[in-house]
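Question (not urgent): is this output format expected?
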Amino acid sequence: MDKLITIYHGSEKIVEQPTFGEGKRNNDFGLGFYCTASKELAKEWAVSSLRNGFANRYTLDTQYLNILNLNSPDYTILNWIAVLVEHRLFSIKTPVARRAKKYLIDNFSVNVNAFDLITGYRADDSYFDYADVFLNNGISVEQLAHAMQLGKLGEQIVIKSKFAFSNLKYEGFEIAEKDQYYILRKARDDEANQLYLEMLEEENDGLYIQDIMRGGIKNNDPRIPGNIS
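Got this back:
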């Protein structure tokens, strides 16, 4: 990552001064300011079918920031989902899912609050659904890892610390037109879901969450598929 980066925050409003400590605690990685390196993705995330949005642009000096990249080879998809289940509200439909949530947090979670900046998958509707199905023993960890690449739904950059907020500089905004970007957003999501359904038709002998718990599989186990990049 370059030391000085440009990032975008998709929103229904212009955000000139992001405030440390504000926001929703039940977001993917907890409290923070959620952005992306892609202006086009920010515009898609900013719109709904009923309204335009804004892609707020910032520069961020990352030189002295402690950065966690959950998509790096140092981590696996189980680290990402463990952080997700620790912060997001999942539908716990079965006793397996209840045990799975605790097992993932106990064995794979990462203390995101120890970092200034986090990069990782954004659990929008499709990605969240894939994670939910995995938690409920519906797909294997190999299928989950593959599903996270489908449709290129996007990676987010989350500013966590007060120090990181102090290095953020507002540079302006662009309007995201709903008539253009909502269609793109929906098409991207539809593509991911179609590829996901096709994946489910393929034969799979991988590890399910129940296998992981029964086998006592822990972090850094070679049976867990690693991140590609």
